Amino acid sequence: MRYLDALASHVRSFTQVLTQLQGDRLIAWMAAVHADDLPGMHTFINGLERDLDAVITGLTLPWNAGIVEGHVNRIKMIKRQMYGRAGFALLRERVLLA
């Protein structure tokens, strides 16, 4: 039961860091997780550490690339729908008119 309590506590803490843009607290949160025996969380932290500067920046600044990613996803969907059917000219028209 101690394992689940620790896991829930760390997840709640990370949720707070994530939703309230408190990237400056991430290092302390990672140290607290490392102190507990939570192999799944250690794997998650190892992934965060690969590009820690970008993660901290993403959890600190209010800007995101969500709108751009949405447009890229829409263009990829249109491209997949047309795969093998037409050339670039038609793809361009569909993207501009969609």
Description:
With 98 residues, the chain is an all-alpha fold. It folds into 2 domains: 2-58; 66-97. The protein has helices at 2-19, 26-35, 39-50, 52-58, 66-81, 88-97. Helix 1 (2-19) packs antiparallel against helix 2 (26-35). The model has no long low-confidence stretch (mean pLDDT 89).
Number of strands: 0
Q: What proportion of the residues form beta strands (DSSP E)?
A: under 5%
Main beta-sheet annotation: none
Characterize the overall form. Answer: elongated
Can you tell me the residue ranges where pLDDT is under 50 for at least 5 consecutive residues?
none
Question: Into how many domains do the coordinates divide?
Answer: 2
Q: What is the element string, with H for helices and E for strands?
A: HHHHHH
Which structural class should the secondary elements be placed in?
A: mainly alpha
Radius of gyration: 20 Å
Count of helical regions: 6
Mean pLDDT: 89
Q: How far do the termini sit from each other?
A: 53 Å
Q: How helix-rich are the residues, as a percent range? A: over 70%
